[in-house]
Specification:
- The protein is mainly α.
- The protein is built from four helices and no strands.
């Protein structure tokens, strides 16, 4: 896959420094995380996660039950993939697409 486009994003300098350190500690870069986010967005047909303002700790029990039930339904329906399967699918896209 050719990397022939550039994306510029303005953000708070401290947020940028913190997220760069986070991804460095995970053995990758913020730029690579953005590329992964873009690929996952294409695979998901939208955001690859459900945006929320509430941390897990602040959710009510019924809301947590609903989210966990939805996750269980996704698992049963085969809509979730292991990390190995995602890596394989991304590898195919990078090498063949």
């Amino acid at each position: 896959m050719s990397m022939d486009a550039t994306l510029q994003v303005r953000m708070d300098g401290q947020v940028k420094a913190n997220v760069e350190e986070l991804y460095r500690s995970l053995g990758t870069s913020f730029a690579e995380a953005v590329r992964i986010f873009a690929q996952q967005s294409l695979l998901a047909g939208g955001m690859p996660f459900q945006p929320t303002l509430k941390p897990w700790e602040a959710m009510q029990a019924e809301e947590l039950d609903r989210k966990l039930s939805a996750s269980e339904a996704d698992i049963q329906a085969g809509r979730l993939y292991s990390q190995e399967a995602v890596d394989a699918r991304m590898g195919e896209k990078f090498h063949h697409g």
